[in-house]
Description:
By secondary structure, the protein is an alpha/beta fold. Helix content is 29%, strand content 18%. It starts with a helix and ends in a 12-residue tail after the last helix.
Amino acid sequence: MGNKLVEGLSAMTSSSLEVAPDILMLQFTIVNACIVGKPKTGDSEWVLVDTGLENSADFILQAVEKRFGKNSSPQAIILTHGHFDHVGSVIKLANLWDVPVYAHELEMPYITGKKDYPVGDPAVSSGMVAKMSPTFPHTSIDVGYRAVALPADGSVPGMTGWKWIHTPGHTEGHVCLFREKDHVLLAADAFTTVKQESLMSVLTQSEQISGPPAYLTIDWQAAEASVKHLRELQPSLVIPSHGQPMQGEELENHLDLLVRNFDEMAVPEQGRFVDRQ
Ligand SMILES: [Zn+2]
Ligand SMILES: [Zn+2]
């Protein structure tokens, strides 16, 4: 039932939003993905960061055609981590485009069929999405030989000027992507700008900075350290995987608030991965 609901939600509205001249955010109701690359540039001059849900491929392909022309394919697909709402269309698209799929080394077992994530933990919140979370797909996908570990030097294939930043906590090999020139941050699930556990907040996208989606987060100490690390980078514009982009003073204030009150704002009262001793 949970998956049906997720599918229904994602089919409801898909939209795109240009957040920078070379960043198109794709919104699939409950999760975002990004196309990074200037419009009308040639083949292989752009990348796709995350791939939405299982039924997101058609919308992604439409957006690609509109932005880069017919039959354009990216240089690579970059995965911030392997959760189902980020890898939903990756196998279909990677096969179609015949491109490598990059992820952090520690995330590789989860995208090559070797290791499953724990099931979602409904105890973390009374919110509807948290309650549904045990029914979310948690088993490893397998992109096979196309899976490649992100380069050790911190560079991101196909994304000149960007660095990947290891931000564990939500998953072992979770990464964010950061551009030093203008401090744009693709935050993935390190933190969100919507209370992802609550269906009402997800539907209305009511803006509120929050920790990583709690029902899937496995290490809260690491998650806190990751948010602190991101704050130190002083991002100017954040595009999270859940919620709306946030920038400037609003972002600075909200992120400060989250860093200072991480326990109260992000860590659940209870849950399998919560250690409150
Ligand atoms: Zn996630
Ligand atoms: Zn997510």
